[in-house]
UniProtKB/TrEMBL annotation:
Keyword vocabulary terms for this entry: Kinase, Transferase
Top-level taxon of origin: Bacteria
Record GO terms (molecular function): kinase activity
Carbohydrate kinase PfkB domain boundaries: 34-284
InterPro entries in alphabetical order: Carboh/pur_kinase_PfkB_CS, PfkB_dom, Ribokinase-like
Protein's recorded name: Sugar/nucleoside kinase (Ribokinase family)
Length: 314
């Protein structure tokens, strides 16, 4: 019996309020006049990974906890309008929210509302096991309930990926994710020693590859064969916002992995998808599609490319 889903995304559903500011850091002032305005829209890390995977033609299902509130309605509409399957579990504290300050150069400062989470928050084990049993791969967001779902995913025999985002390499909260996934993404932003942290993940956990994204410096890919640098891909349009670029990179990489490409090609897919995301305004929700990704990769490499393992989606 085949799997219903290429990827099960766990966690990372929520709502962001986007505020464009004249500069970052933002100097103190009594008030600022903001243009193009302030907008609230659904789309946090899990939402964007699910969007990116779905746009690339992989059958994707998202599982997370959200509230019975207007923010939750935005999250529901985000998935419904894009045809992305979504299983919701009630979140007593209400849907997760954040405020993103976005500067003119596209840099972002996120303020996360930490009052939504409770110690008792859990994704039901039977729901996790049921969805895992019909999925090829699981991408696990760095949210509290997901840490308790990792053992069920491992028992189900799925391949697992996670994104540690701006981990400093020391905070113990991240370690179950870092050491419990087969593909580990991390930003270099807060790492004092990027290679040392990457090697520790590879040595202590189950990862076959660790990928560190470094913005304008490109990315780094570490496997048992060694560390390689992945050159940056220049966006085809002006950079307007970095929000979601890491999620897009992960989506592109996973698309390559699930269609049978080697890890370097996967990293190139991720770089192209991440570059595209930087051209999308923070108030928008868009992702590169399969045809666009493969066409740009073919142009960059001079090689015709095709996805060998066609997903169950588009």
């Amino acid at each position: 019996m085949g799997n219903a889903y290429d990827v099960l995304v766990l966690g990372g559903a929520g709502v962001d309020t986007i505020v464009y500011v004249p500069e970052l850091p933002l100097p103190y002032a009594d008030s600022y006049m903001i243009r193009p305005g302030i907008e609230t829209r659904a789309g946090q890390t899990g939402d964007f990974v699910a969007l990116g995977l779905s746009a690339l033609g992989l059958s994707t299902h998202h599982l997370d906890m959200i509230g019975d509130d207007p923010s939750g309605d935005l999250v529901r509409a985000f998935h419904r309008d894009r045809g992305i399957g979504f299983t919701e579990v009630p979140l007593p504290g209400g849907t997760k929210r954040a405020v993103n300050l976005v500067g003119p150069d596209g840099r972002r400062l996120s303020l996360y509302d930490d009052s939504r989470s409770r110690e008792s928050d859990r994704l039901p084990e039977d729901v996790v096991r049921s969805l895992a049993s019909v999925s090829r791969h699981a991408h696990v967001s760095l949210t509290y309930p997901c840490a308790f779902a990792l053992p069920q995913l491992q028992e189900a025999g799925l391949s697992i990926s996670t994104d540690l985002h701006d981990w400093d390499g020391e905070n113990p909260y991240h370690e179950p994710f870092a050491y419990g996934a087969d593909l580990v993404f991390v930003s270099t932003t807060a790492l004092a020693d990027t290679e040392k942290t990457m090697r520790r993940i590879l040595e202590r956990g189950r990862a076959e590859a660790v990928i560190a994204t470094a913005g304008a410096e490109g990315a780094y890919l570490l496997t048992a064969d060694g560390l390689v640098h992945i050159p940056v891909v220049e966006p085809r349009k002006p950079v307007v916002d970095s929000n979601g670029a890491g999620d897009a990179f992960a989506s592109g990489f996973l698309f390559g992995r699930l269609t049978g490409e080697d890890l370097r090609r996967c990293a190139l897919y991720g770089s192209v998808a991440g570059a595209y995301a930087c051209t999308v305004p923070a108030t928008g929700c868009d992702a590169i599609d399969r045809a666009g990704l493969l066409a740009e990769v073919a142009e960059l490499t001079g090689d015709p490319v095709s996805a060998r393992g066609v997903g169950r989606g588009k």
